[in-house]
TrEMBL record, chains A, B:
Pfam families: RuBisCO_large (PF00016). It comes from the Bacteria. GO terms for molecular function: magnesium ion binding; ribulose-bisphosphate carboxylase activity. This is Ribulose-1,5-bisphosphate carboxylase like protein.
Amino acid sequence: MPSGSSVSGASLDLSRARFEVVYHLACPGTEVETRARDICIEQTVEFPESAIPNPEIREQIVGRILAIEALDAGRFEARIAYPVEAAGSELTQFVNLLFGNISLKPGVRLVRFEVPDALADLYPGPRFGRDGLRTLVGVTDRPLLCTAIKPMGLGPHELADLAHRLALGGIHLIKDDHGLADQVFCPFDERVALCSEAVSRANRETGGNALYLPNVTAPAGEIGRRAHFAKEAGAGGLLFCPGLAGLDAVRALAADDRLDLPILSHPAFQGGHCIHPDSGVSHGALFGQLNRMAGADATIFPNWGGRFSFTREACLDLVEGTVRPMGSIRPIFPVPAGGMRLDRVAEMCDFYGPDVILLIGGDLHANGRDLIDNCRQFSNLSQQA
Amino acid sequence: MPSGSSVSGASLDLSRARFEVVYHLACPGTEVETRARDICIEQTVEFPESAIPNPEIREQIVGRILAIEALDAGRFEARIAYPVEAAGSELTQFVNLLFGNISLKPGVRLVRFEVPDALADLYPGPRFGRDGLRTLVGVTDRPLLCTAIKPMGLGPHELADLAHRLALGGIHLIKDDHGLADQVFCPFDERVALCSEAVSRANRETGGNALYLPNVTAPAGEIGRRAHFAKEAGAGGLLFCPGLAGLDAVRALAADDRLDLPILSHPAFQGGHCIHPDSGVSHGALFGQLNRMAGADATIFPNWGGRFSFTREACLDLVEGTVRPMGSIRPIFPVPAGGMRLDRVAEMCDFYGPDVILLIGGDLHANGRDLIDNCRQFSNLSQQA
């Protein structure tokens, strides 16, 4: 009995709704059709085409090439459509369908994807987004200011003192350094209680609305507990590293009505996905679109010209991903960072415009002047631009 | 008041226990010291060295260069030690410390890491490992056989029929295709109930111990429910994609005494971390060491010479990571896969030796012969080698 003959005969009846994904392929022109067809198979049935047991699967499940277009030498853009039902209703399987197995192949890059209503309706996305976050901190029409409490090694009282002064200085979002977890020298609960109180106290002193965002990147069963502890303590938002603890954990935090807190995503351990231009995931798709689908309200990334290596073009692509139409999913803030300095604020404002969160860390401490004065200078510089 | 002066004066008092991480750097020889020093800072304090407020942090927290050695032209090996306390007791922060921010920089690759007892004791690792998995399926001293039920698009009854025949044919581990999640055309609960029953029935017929491993890669709050549903239904193990749902979720599954099931990890969406030889994470560290620390019992990867692009050397490095001494953490099985065919079984047995799980998918269906016969041929070939 050939293996196909045991199929029970039940047939697929999908909605025929498909969504479109754009890949860039680096290969000789003679191979591009085969490469695109390979993606259609690899990302869905992962099965020899000739052995697919029934025609409905071939027609309804296997990806479909919509178009292939030559870019520059040896590079092509392929648009492929997948059935909405193959992505299910879960972010984990959605990412798997977009780029699961083919992440293991060089020369293919996920560039962007379209989110029709049938998909977008499954993902509420960010709870606040750009407008909501502006309302929370009470700032319209200019960049928001962000910094981190650090360095690692300071204790909770020292960090709380820093947070207090940063809020006095006019910083809107004061986040944990992403290396602050729950170490013996700085336990999460103690740090978060003290820093939340310190920022609240500064807000009472200034009449401002600074938010403290503790890092809730944590073991699987602990993320929710820390987030709720933070909420109870009066934290104003959450910092999270989806590369370390999963993109879907962002979705779970964003969906939690009892939390009702904005989420700032941090790119730790996500570099491999994006730093090679001919493979991986584009900056716009990774830090923009996927973060938005998950529910982050702002997305930290290394700005061009800092300690890291992102190009101007990559940063612009990322910004495009934060705002590209995706059903009713809100636009989110880009947060360029990574060794930014006060002397680059004007340039950053010019490059990104007003819809940006500027993140400066160490440089607020490195000028030999008072920290609060440096924060005020940061604020002034961002308003002059 | 300079910002440093507000530090409360509390001083660090760490154990001084450090663990060692090996990186490869691609850069000119004139830059290698600076690059290594940069890693020491970036992965810990992420702060201008001159602004670090107290000497204890500089001495106890900042990474320490143990050695730098030239490899071939333009490549260097740097060994760096970090304080055990900076990694905390959580896998998320451990990975962050190893490679969080520097993943965003080209030309640095995490090659391997040492796990002293102070760290290993925090991570029980795989519940079964190689020996435990051999005991479960009752096979000593030869390769175990694995396959997937697919293609996506078949319904639960069709997949259960496949699973039954694969078990009759002598396959030891019958896993869900990693694209099977909880889609409308193949709901998780129905599939898992039927396939578990089908494999149990086959075991009663053959006297064998085939395991069915459903894919429990799922949204954050759903992983545990699916795993426990699978356990109740009689599944013999779990398939999980840490690249999609987080490495720490593997740890949570492995730590769950009520589950007590072996875990097979799948590399979906992890390609970016490893496919470029001068950046990212080595195959041994990513698929071997990190999977083991998390608690996977076997690690699927694309074999050389298949549909993907891993080299022979990468595969050998990966195998080394599955067995490298790591405290009391057990060795796990490498599972080479990705377009493997019956006509390569002898070669794979020769290359990997007996301590391997051979995974063949589509080729069991593609030979125009009976599926059960193909499975038996697979088994015979693996025993002749």
